[in-house]
Amino acid sequence: MSPNNQIFLKHCAECSACPASSCCYYEEDGFVMVGISAAKEIKEKTGLSYQEFLDFSPLPQALVEECRNDFPNSEGRMRYEMLKDNRILRLKMKNNRCPFLNEKNACHIYPFKPLICTMFPFWYKTEEAEIKIVPHNPQTDCLFMENEKCVPDELHTHLKKVALAIEEEKEEYLKEIEHFVKENKLI
Questions:
Q1: Which residues pair with 17 in a beta bridge?
Q2: What's the per-residue H, E or C state across the chain?
Q3: Are 64 and 86 within 8 A, CB to CB?
Q4: Which residues, at least 6 apart from 164, have a Cβ–Cβ distance to it below 8 Å?
């Protein structure tokens, strides 16, 4: 486990503001977007077919609207911009939970999880060409994010690199998604 994750997990383990692994469960229609490179790596390292873990079906209209109406610079708004006919490449959820959680609720693909999983519970916004780390959910009671100074410099630096990787992932996705889903019979 990287030092960045150890720092983050130490703080989270001491907190009861949110349930453990809340990023891996959804009460309703949530989704975990998967970039094309991440999908390829998951397939290669797990031996699963794309059809076993990916979903490219249309999102429910209410979820599309929720993404469209999300606040500026949010993940929801970014994902809305990535939709193709109300579809986005995402993990195939099982009973509203990530399909890669094992029986002990640990991530089976942790070393090569999707970028959003690496970023969560943080997100980012760009202000005057500078990346600023912010809570994924602005209404969160996350004590770790109450004060930006609580985020150690090394974790902050790591998260900025992840944010840049998410931007690159978005560009790759927009260029290649139509070919990828047709070639792999996901549509």
A1: none
A2: CCHHHHHHHHHHHCCCCCCCCHHHECCCCCCCECCHHHHHHHHHHHCCCHHHHEECCECCHHHHHHHHCCCCCCHHHHHHHHCECCECCEECCECCECCCECCCCCECCHHHCCHHHHHCCEEEEEECCEEEEEECCCCCCCHHHCCHHHCCHHHHHHHHHHHHHHHHHHHHHHHHHHHHHHHCCCC
A3: yes
A4: 131
- Is 66 within the bounds of a domain? yes
* Total domains, the chain: 1
Residues 6+ apart with CB under 8 A from 171: none
Show the tokens assigned to 35.
């970039």
Q: Cβ-count burial of 126 within 10 angstroms (0-12 exposed, 13-18 middle, 19+ buried)?
A: exposed
Over residues 26-41, the pLDDT tens digits come to: 767 788 999 999 999 9
> The domain containing residue 89 runs over which residues?
3-20+27-98+108-183
Per the domain annotation, does 103 fall within a domain?
A: no
- CA 55 to chain CA centroid, Å, is 15
45-87 residue pLDDT tens? 999 999 999 999 999 999 999 999 988 888 999 999 999 999 9
Answer yes or no: are the C-beta atoms of 110 and 37 closer than 8 Å. Answer: no
